[in-house]
Amino acid sequence: MTMPTTTAPAFADVTASGSTLRRFLHGLPGVDAVGLEARAASLGTRSIKTTAKAYAIDLAISMIDLTTLEGADTPGKVRALAAKAVNPDPTDRSTPRTAALCVYPDMVATAKAALTGTDVKVASVATAFPAGRAALDVKLADTRDAVAAGADEIDMVIDRGAFLAGDYLKVYEEIRAVKEACGEQARLKVIFETGELSTYDNIRRASWLGMIAGADFIKTSTGKVGVNATPANTLLMLEAVRDFRAQTGVQVGVKPAGGIRTTKDAIKFLVLVNETVGEDWLDNHWFRFGASSLLNDLLMQRQKLATGRYSGPDYVTVD
Fold it and tell me: Does residue 155 have an active-site annotation?
């Protein structure tokens, strides 16, 4: 199902001022932390076997934003990861491609050239990633540079300092400005850095704030802090996109990122998606994994299902 991803007119009054936005966000139902964590843990015990597991592995591969965000990134490394994104397992051409390759803005042109003629998207972090500590004009220039270089998707970080200080209108206006800078070319993923938001109530507020501001995706984390994606915070964000669509008709994607390293972990998150928002979100247009090492484990498990044995350590490339 394809749904529009624009700010719902119903929220015009909510965003009229800082006080009205604060009143709305603090009027959202409080999160039952015990209940949330218990449900996430319960869903994490679900077990799938054989054919269903093979399907889940292929689905997870197709949802990966294969990522390299290091100061030592080189054009050669980006081109190598682009080749892996297009053809994750050279010994088995039936292996799905990943959804996207995610890089810093200065590597977008290299990634775009390497992925020409494929359906793998180029995603780029922007807005002074990962801290988000920069003036708005710098953040917008960062975004425009990435889009001009060919980025299909922009992963922005919110100003957590402004959010935690209660300046929700500033965060809203920055998201709106970055969304405008993306134009029609790039979808916008809004990163909350859930590990720094401290409470589940804050994660719920950030989710609604991002969606009201026009996010195409809401994303847990940068992967650069101690606590990143967890089943509980991802479940909370899935509930938020479900409720937002029920209220507005606007569908928003979800991207857990950071700390998801094994096939077992990935399948737990797919169960969360299926049981919380259903099949409408079970494709890579609406759900992504922000990961690098996860792909290697998925490929190892995929070969195990096909051959009955695990591969040697040289079966997958070391990223």
Answer: yes
